[in-house]
Amino acid sequence: MISMVKIDYKPEEAGKILVKYVPELEEKMVIASQKYLAKEYKAEAPKWGEMKKEVWTTYGKWMFDNGLLENELKASILFITHDIDEAIFLSDKIYVFSERPASIKSIFEVNINRPRDNNTFTSMEFNQMKKEILNLL
Question: Which residues pair with 106 in a beta bridge?
Answer without folding.
Answer: 96
